[in-house]
Amino acid sequence: MAQNVIDILKQEHEEVLSILEKLSSKGISDRSSMYSSMKSALLPHMEGEERAVYPAFDQAGMHERVLESIEEHNAVKTLLGQLDSASMSNEDEWVARMKVIRENVQHHVKEEEEIFPKARQSFSSGDLEEMGSRFEEAKGKVPMAAR
Hints:
This is Hemerythrin. This protein is mainly alpha-helical. The protein has helices at residues 5-23, 31-59, 63-84, 91-114, 116-122, 125-140.
């Protein structure tokens, strides 16, 4: 049975924010694998939102919020690209960059979750479950190399 897209998004937000919080600390021994795990969760999540969630939210009168969300995704992708080329051996610099990414994602999540009540009013539970299925399908189409 399909899961409500809002429930999926909230769960994934919590998971990614938890990893980002850990990555924003110094002295992490498995930083590289944790960073890879975070990207493997975050990048498909953003793609799934853009392909399966935002078009429906846009049609339900949330146009400005959708446009802002896409720009926030673009900013996080740019920051991740910069972090990919930074050396983890300079922990102070790497952690500082990660903190900026964490702050951007926290801001995005806060604003996105503020429109969830409107989404619950705008869509039936069946619509939200169908969106959940489309979201999961879109995430699965993100190539591993892009993560």
